[in-house]
Write a sequence for this structure.
């Protein structure tokens, strides 16, 4: 899979709220709020992380009431959520193993990645920690909005502060040119060109692996 990505640093929580207000005004759809713990391992050829996440909002509880009324089973709910979110982060909690290769440059860049759902994250984390070693652990609260093919991430990262990430997904439903146009338009709508661009991952910032 492939994304167009941009990360900017917000000047405090107030700026993050302003970006969120602009996203709502532009017609972005709120999806969820999650806590995420990303454990980065000392992989050689790509970034490798185990993402463990759990919901922090009330939408899941509300949805559960509706599902019970419709006599849906837990398995049916899980399958529906996975289909709706591409198997990424539907439901109350979960874990993903993610391998990614991204361009190391400022501004919008391309990222290629592979995602694998994990059923026993504690066991896998212990196994990979023993085999590879841990580079760094990133903890954050993420509010997630969707605009077209773009995911808008409003992040509060432990020990780092507030950030906005855009991820425009390039797939069979959108050409690279269309994705680039949507990405650029959203940067203008959210006024992200006024904020400092961060060309590093959160793992780089926390581990000090920045130029």
């Amino acid at each position: 899979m492939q994304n167009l990505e941009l990360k900017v640093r917000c000047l405090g929580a107030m700026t993050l709220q302003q970006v969120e207000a602009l996203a709502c005004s532009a017609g972005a759809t709120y999806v969820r709020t999650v806590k995420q713990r990303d454990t980065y391992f000392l992989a050689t050829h790509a970034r490798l992380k185990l993402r463990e996440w759990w919901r922090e909002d009330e939408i899941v509880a509300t949805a559960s009431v509706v599902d019970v009324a419709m006599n849906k089973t837990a398995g049916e709910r899980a399958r529906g959520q996975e289909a709706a979110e591409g198997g990424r982060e539907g439901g109350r909690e979960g874990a993903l193993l993610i391998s990614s290769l991204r361009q190391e440059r400022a501004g919008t860049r391309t990222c290629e990645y592979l995602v694998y759902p994990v059923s026993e994250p504690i066991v896998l984390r212990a196994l990979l920690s023993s085999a590879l070693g841990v580079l760094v652990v990133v903890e954050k609260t993420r509010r997630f909005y969707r605009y077209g093919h773009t995911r808008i991430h409003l992040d509060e990262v432990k020990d780092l502060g507030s950030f906005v990430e855009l991820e425009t997904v390039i797939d069979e439903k959108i050409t690279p040119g269309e994705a680039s146009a949507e990405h650029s338009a959203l940067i203008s709508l959210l006024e992200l060109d006024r904020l400092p661009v961060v060309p590093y991952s959160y793992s780089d910032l926390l581990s000090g692996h920045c130029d």
Q: What stands out?
A: The two ends are 28 Å apart (CA to CA).
